[in-house]
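Troubleshooting: if your tokenizer reports a length mismatch, compare your output against this known-good record of 206 residues.
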Amino acid sequence: MDYNSLIGFLFELKEIMQVNRDYLIDLDSVVGDGDLGLTMSDGFLAAYNAVKDSNETDCGKLLYFAGKAMGTAVPSTMGTLMASGLMRAGRELKGKTNLLPQDFVTLFQAYMDGVSDRGKAKVGEKTFLDGLDPAVSTLQNNISSGIDIKDAASNAAEAARKGFENTVGMLAVHGRAATRGEASRSLLDPGAAVAMLIMEAFAKSI
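Known-good structure output:
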């Protein structure tokens, strides 16, 4: 796979965020200011538009440019976090014009690290990371076991869905949800829903 696979991934990302815009708005309106759906749909659209007609064949540079465009388009907290993830992934894949299955593990691990470092969050604190972390682990384990990338991506998407669902019961540590204290345990985390959608888009793009 080459840079076209990443452009295809970004296409599916902007599509799935548009389709689920209202769903994310509804989720976020319970614990935040309700703009998550708009931020994600506008942000990933900007990321895709920045590279869709590019002649750049360096996979890392494509992701980095997409992240910069997203950060400019949606400079909110979540927009900045998602842009940071793309840019970190871009730095890790810089120089690659062809991608092996393991490179996608690198991509999503770097994405997670970029978000974690920028947001100062950890797995278990009821955030985006709780949706992405189980997906990355599943993807790594599947690829290490020789499972086809398409099946591995599908399994990773399912793991992200379960991770999102498992945010019920967690205590929120960050953002407005944290102000609810123990009451936050009963709520699904909107950020983890974004992670779930990202992995669904990835599975669809393979």
